[in-house]
């Protein structure tokens, strides 16, 4: 039997050490609340401070079976709670423990933190299918 995985590892700078502390506290609060629900908010991701305690950069990465939608939800929540602005994005990889057709690929998402919404995404699987079908695509 094959195991399928989604992996990601990305940084987000929330601007100040105080905001980083607030982000970590929010993550822990959401993680605790997830234990009591069938619809977890931050399952599939881990949050850690990337730099020294006085830094503002946080490392978001998968915890074995990543959830891309959980990353997007959490970052949008951070943008709202911490009043973040600017563009932010991340990439992810789809992998499998055994060779399977259509089991490998990945993609990327871009989020406008100020507008509090995802503004674009791409999937390597969809891009490849379109290119092989002779469809126009942005390279």
Task: Please give a structural write-up.
The structure is a single chain. The protein is α+β, with helices and mostly antiparallel strands and 139 residues long. It is 30% helix and 31% strand. It has helices at residues 17-34, 68-82, 124-132; strands at residues 4-7, 9-13, 46-49, 57-61, 87-96, 105-112, 117-123. The strands form two sheets. It has a four-stranded antiparallel β-sheet with strand order 1-5-6-7. Strands 2-4-3 form a three-stranded antiparallel β-sheet, with helices on one face. It is globular, with a radius of gyration of 17 Å. The mean pLDDT is 92.
Mind sketching the topology for me?
Blueprint: E1 4-7, E2 9-13, H1 17-34, E3 46-49, E4 57-61, H2 68-82, E5 87-96, E6 105-112, E7 117-123, H3 124-132
Antiparallel strand pairs: 1-5, 2-4, 3-4, 5-6, 6-7
- Report how far apart the termini are: 35 Å
Return residue spans where pLDDT drops below 50 for at least 5 consecutive residues.
none
User: What share of residues are in beta strands?
Assistant: 25-35%
Based on Cα principal axes, name the global outline.
Answer: globular
Mean of all residue-level pLDDT scores: 92
Class by SSE composition: alpha+beta
How many β strands by DSSP? 7
Helix content: 25-40%
Largest sheet: 4 strands, antiparallel
Number of helices: 3
Strands of the biggest beta sheet: in what spatial order?
A: 1-5-6-7
Order of helices and strands: EEHEEHEEEH
Rg, Å, rounded: 17 Å
